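Hey all, quick one. A colleague (J.T.) asked me to put the flavin mononucleotide job into the tracker so the inputs and the structure tokens live in one place instead of scattered across chat threads. No bug as far as I know, just bookkeeping. Sequence used:
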Amino acid sequence: MSDILAVTLGRLRLANPVLVASGTFGYGLEYEDMVDLSRLGGICVKGISLLPRPGNPPPRICETPSGMLNAIGLENVGFEAFVRDKMPRLRDAGATVVANIYGTSAEEFAELAARFDEVPGVAALEVNISCPNVKEGGMHFGARPEPAAAATRAVREATRLPVIVKLSPEASDLGGVAKAVAEAGADAISLINTIRGMVIDVSTRRPRLATRTGGLSGPAIRPIAVRMVYEVARAVDVPLIGMGGITCLDDALQFLLAGASAIQVGTASFADPRAAIHIIDDLEKYCIDRGIRPADLVGKVV
Ligand SMILES: Cc1cc2nc3c(=O)[nH]c(=O)nc-3n(C[C@H](O)[C@H](O)[C@H](O)COP(=O)(O)O)c2cc1C
């Protein structure tokens, strides 16, 4: 494969701009039989906390028109088990690993970041300050500029790795949050996380999710995500990684044109685990046919 798709996001160089989104591709290893993990621009692994988390009670996912609602609640194996059981196999598979991290305080974010600094094979950290499905941390950091900057600064000071900060679409001043995390030292910004929604089963009159509300993802949120990438690209100079309902090349190109330097494929991988691979192949052909690189498209909406 040529390197026509290679992209640089600040200090982070990726073989191509197509990553898989956190929480929608497990730890990557679950898909090893179907997908050559080394071909992905990066794997944002399921959000990792210092200690294992059981997540929320079921039911925690439900289908919606053009999308899904989830309230997993950041179930994960915890830092130690991830590093012991998953990282060696991810390294062997040649995967570019982006560790998505979750903490309930700036101190916890810093401790996780410092621990990841020692782990060989981690390409970058993605700081999740935008999960809508947890009582502490998550969106509580991402909703306003000051706590978002505090979490970013804590991670920045604790690690030498490139730091990607993942924004919440629910911040009322998204541009302000983006500027705050950029000033606090983020190398890149990823957006968007899910948008809170609710589905009610009218026969039982109960919400479909045990937590009552959850995060909406999939094509239903794509136009909102494209608009947010477009606006944040105008607010900051740091590179952006766009996501929200991307299923095919056309969707991915919209995000590049809106101002994203790279994209993530999320919910689409549930329907087709090879969705990201198809987009990589189609993007390569698109670029070769036109004699361009992905960077030539970034922010070029007219
Ligand atoms: C089941 C599920 C679990 C998720 N878990 C995480 C997570 O652990 N950390 C995180 O930052 N985002 C998480 N997300 C959000 C996705 O990474 C992504 O931001 C969002 O789903 C929008 O992209 P999509 O519409 O392509 O799915 C999760 C999404 C889903 C659907």
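Adding what we noticed when we looked at it: The radius of gyration is 18 Å. The chain has a mean pLDDT of 96.
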